[in-house]
Amino acid sequence: MEHETILTVKDLSGGYRSRGLFGRRRETPIFSGVSFTLRRGETLGLVGESGSGKSTLARTVLGLQPPFSGEVIRGFFDRPQMIFQDPLGALNPAMTVEHIAAEPLIAAGVRSRAERERAVKEIFDAVELPEACRGRRPGALSGGQRQRVCIAAALVTRPTLVAADEPVSALDVTLQAQILSLLGRLRKEMGLSMLFVSHDLPLVSSFCDRVLVMQNGAIVEQGDAAKVLSSPEHPFTKRLAAAALGEIPGRGKKV
Ligand SMILES: Nc1ncnc2c1ncn2[C@@H]1O[C@H](COP(=O)(O)OP(=O)(O)O)[C@@H](O)[C@H]1O
Ligand SMILES: [Mg+2]
């Protein structure tokens, strides 16, 4: 069970479809030739510069948009969920956060209102959202509280796989640490498999088991998280690692 593969991605490519001039179909490729596996309980990091195609790949892997070619083979049957980067944009401003967290249960076919209420209470307790916040709308919450609501809404159906797309990028450093420790605790308690997307290599390598490095829509390196940071092999990964070292005073760059 421990090493059970729950996700296999084979030679996947994808991007955006649109209608061009005269209604002609246009395909804009964003990523291609992506292959990896994810095991149960494992956290896989996806790191790369902004615009490299990470979010598009994550959405395609989760089945939120169709691939152009290749395969996504899932070893589980529930619906994978996504934690988004910008909680204010991702949360319906007109609904109370209790209602927002109940929506995925409705989508998953949980018809009993009492059951939904119990599940929402349990997940809000798990993400430590203060009781006083639960009847409010997203606009009335702090950034950290909104990110907790986003996490609750993604986990309320108890998914096998969750993708977190830059879940702490919009937060200040103190809140980042709180949300990461929350995610770390929840993935253990709930036995989650996670695809963790970020542009921050040190953050990814400290939070994840393995890392995929993406450059311009291609995976240029993948491996053990600590190793990818400490001994990167691809020139692009080396650049990411060096840039990260330079940003942290006292580690590398002389000021
Ligand atoms: N809906 C869309 N239609 C067309 N192109 C898009 C769309 N969304 C994103 N893109 C383009 O796809 C590329 C990759 O974007 P994205 O997957 O969001 O990268 P990342 O998450 O790594 O920053 C970018 O060039 C972006 O402009
Ligand atoms: Mg993105």
Account of the 3D structure:
The protein has nine helices and nine strands. A six-stranded mixed β-sheet has the order 5-6-7-3-8-9, sandwiched between helices. A three-stranded antiparallel β-sheet has the order 2-1-4, with helices on one face. The protein has two domains: 1-80 and 161-248, Rossmann fold; 84-158, no CATH class. 37% of the residues lie in helices and 27% in strands. By secondary structure, the protein is of the alpha/beta class. The structure holds adenosine-5'-diphosphate and magnesium ion. The site of adenosine-5'-diphosphate has 11 residues, from strand 2 and helix 1.
Ligands bound to this protein structure:
adenosine-5'-diphosphate, magnesium ion
Compute the gyration radius: what is it? 19 Å
Low-confidence stretches: 249-255
**CATH topology of the largest domain, anyone?**
Rossmann fold
In terms of DSSP E residues, the strand content is: 25-35%
List keywords for this structure.
disordered C terminus; alpha/beta; 255 residues; binds magnesium ion; binds adenosine-5'-diphosphate; 2 domains; 27% strand; 9 helices; 37% helix
